């Protein structure tokens, strides 16, 4: 699906605010550590740990992460716990027990097939 994806990432037990942004790249597709394209922050209360939108995990520790480096902060789909929890934003101060990711897919439009008429 091409277009602009809207994301909302929450850590409800540790961090009071949600991270909301848009990007045109699908984080679950493409190469590991591929650059996030079309990133636009909407509400970014946790810009730490080299935040830059979600991409395929670079460390092998998580399916997706939000650090544009080999770090794996903002992890989604982790293989291992990080000191008993999930690795969220640095400002959360400690691993979190819960991570929530919401995704609004781009609008998909269809183009009608052209019609042809035969002269009578």
Précis, in short:
The protein has strands at 5-10, 19-23, 40-43, 51-56, 62-67, 76-78, 100-104. The protein is an all-beta fold.
What do these coordinates show?
By secondary structure, the protein is mainly β. It is 0% helix and 29% strand. It has no helices and 7 strands. The protein has strands at 5-10, 19-23, 40-43, 51-56, 62-67, 76-78, 100-104. It has a 4-stranded antiparallel beta sheet, with no helix packed on it. Strands 4-5-6 form a 3-stranded antiparallel beta sheet, with no helix packed on it. A hairpin with an 8-residue loop joins strand 1 (5-10) and strand 2 (19-23). The chain starts with a strand and ends in a 16-residue tail after the last strand. The mean pLDDT is 84.
The backbone outline, from C-alpha atoms, is elongated
Content of β-strand:
25-35%
Cα-based radius of gyration, to the nearest Å: 18 Å
Report how far the terminal alpha carbons are from each other: 42 Å
Q: How many β-strands, per DSSP?
A: 7
Strand arrangement in the largest pleated sheet: 3-2-1-7
Please bin the fraction of helical residues. under 10%
Tell me the major beta sheet.
4 strands, antiparallel
Low-pLDDT runs of 5+ residues are none
Classification by helices and strands: mainly beta
Helical segment count: 0
């Amino acid at each position: 699906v091409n277009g602009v994806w809207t994301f909302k990432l929450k850590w409800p037990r540790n961090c009071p605010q949600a991270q909301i942004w848009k990007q045109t790249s699908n984080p679950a597709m493409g190469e590991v550590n591929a650059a996030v394209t079309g990133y636009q922050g909407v509400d970014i209360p946790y810009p730490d740990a080299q935040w830059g939108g979600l991409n395929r995990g670079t460390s092998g520790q998580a399916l997706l992460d939000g650090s544009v480096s080999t770090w794996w902060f903002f992890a989604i789909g982790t293989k291992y716990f990080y000191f008993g929890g999930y690795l969220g934003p640095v400002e959360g101060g400690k691993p979190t027990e819960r991570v929530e990711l919401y995704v609004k897919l781009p609008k998909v439009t269809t183009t009608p097939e052209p019609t042809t008429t035969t002269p009578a």
